[in-house]
């Protein structure tokens, strides 16, 4: 089993003014499934390559168990890598693709056969061991790539957007398979993605990254319910959160027109301008007398839900409603906010005004 500790890890390329990764601090416990998530270009794949030893570390310390591994070569780090592109050898069979790393390490043939067959059984690839990659589906190719990592019995798995080349239905299926594998193998896993759905459904701990800086670390529930700043609130959650400028006065949260939408959940010692955040599922339809007017621009029928997109006080908003509601484009509906689910942010720092504890 493996514990990982990153202390002020930084990466700066010679041809860049700013650091790609800046003072990255994170503790990963044995058997955790940690997802690093963020938009394209935020540094998440660079971070993973630093862990693997494929990128040098400009500053800071990387600990694996009780040893600093900054200068330890990749082959000696007891890690297994799964990349976005399957990187299979087209001229080799599934068996030989899975066995390739073992052969490089001069593992005895009888042991290779035993380990490959066991891995193929875990991944449902037994019937395909003699096939070449060109005859496999995308999901099967990804299983072979996973098999090549699993067969090594490594203590640490690093996965770099492994599902991004698959269609939506297959991604959902492969997410389930990867989680089942994690529970079975109990390897410490670090998974990089730009897809917040993958992060929310797979992670025991999420690390949200932007421009090389950690924005928040927490469980999926924590980062969703207690976002540290406007970026996290907007990045996590589908459909995205709604924002509206407002005021905080006498511990009451108000819209700019003076409408009171709720009270603070704890004393915030803040008066004046705020940014109010409310998720589409934390609002409901109400009467004209009780509600905030929202002009309807379009609707999205999603089966079990309907999302209504419109405008509230000049800002684009969306609300989740029962799909049986009869709502037409161009009409005005009236909404009320769940006062217990409101987020309030400082408009200058964009930080949440509610304090929160940080996992590290």
From TrEMBL:
Which Gene Ontology molecular-function terms are recorded? Answer: ABC-type transporter activity; ATP binding; ATP hydrolysis activity
Q: Which Pfam families match?
A: ABC_tran, TOBE_2
Is Translocase tagged as a keyword?
A: yes
Q: Which UniProt keywords apply?
A: ATP-binding, Cell membrane, Membrane, Nucleotide-binding, Translocase, Transport
Residue span, ABC transporter domain: 4-236
> Which GO biological process entries does UniProt record here?
carbohydrate transport
Keyword Zinc attached: no
**Superkingdom to which the source organism belongs:** Bacteria
Q: What's an example GO cellular component term for this entry?
A: ATP-binding cassette (ABC) transporter complex, substrate-binding subunit-containing
Q: What is this protein called?
A: Sugar ABC transporter ATP-binding protein
Per the UniProt entry, what species is this protein from, by scientific name? Answer: Pontibacillus litoralis JSM 072002
């Amino acid at each position: 089993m493996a514990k990982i500790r990153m202390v002020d890890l930084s990466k700066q390329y010679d041809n860049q003014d700013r650091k790609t990764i800046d003072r990255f601090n994170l503790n990963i416990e044995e058997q955790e499934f940690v997802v690093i998530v963020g938009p394209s270009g935020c540094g998440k794949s660079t971070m993973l390559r630093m862990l693997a030893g494929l990128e040098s570390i400009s500053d800071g310390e990387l600990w694996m168990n009780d040893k600093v591994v900054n200068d330890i070569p990749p082959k000696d780090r007891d890690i297994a890598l799964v990349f976005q592109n399957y990187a299979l050898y087209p001229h080799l069979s599934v068996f030989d693709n899975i066995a390739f790393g073992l052969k490089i390490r001069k593992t005895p043939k009888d042991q290779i056969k035993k380990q490959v067959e066991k891995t193929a059984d875990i991944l449902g690839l037994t019937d395909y061991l003699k096939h070449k990659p060109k005859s496999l589906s995308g999901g099967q190719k990804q299983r072979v790539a996973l098999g090549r990592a699993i067969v090594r019995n490594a203590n640490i798995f690093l996965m770099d957007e492994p599902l991004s080349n698959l269609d939506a239905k297959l991604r959902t299926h492969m997410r389930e398979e990867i989680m089942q594998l994690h529970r079975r193998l109990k390897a410490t896993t670090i998974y990089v993605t730009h897809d917040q759905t993958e992060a929310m459904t797979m992670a025991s701990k999420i690390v949200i990254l932007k421009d090389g800086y950690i924005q928040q670390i927490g469980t999926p529930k924590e980062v969703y319910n207690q976002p540290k700043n406007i970026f996290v609130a907007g990045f996590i959650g589908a459909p995205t959160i709604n924002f509206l400028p407002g005021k905080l006065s006498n511990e009451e949260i108000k819209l700019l027109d003076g409408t009171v939408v709720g009270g603070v959940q704890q004393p915030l010692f803040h008066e004046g301008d705020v940014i109010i955040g409310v998720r589409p599922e934390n609002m409901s339809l109400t009467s004209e007398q009780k509600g905030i007017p929202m002009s309807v621009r379009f609707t999205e029928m999603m089966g079990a839900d309907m999302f209504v997109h419109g405008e509230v006080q000049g800002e684009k908003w969306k609300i989740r409603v029962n799909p049986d509601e009869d709502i037409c484009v161009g009409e005005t509906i009236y909404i009320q906010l769940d006062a217990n689910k409101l987020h309030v942010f400082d408009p200058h720092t964009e930080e949440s005004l509610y304090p929160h504890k940080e996992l590290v």
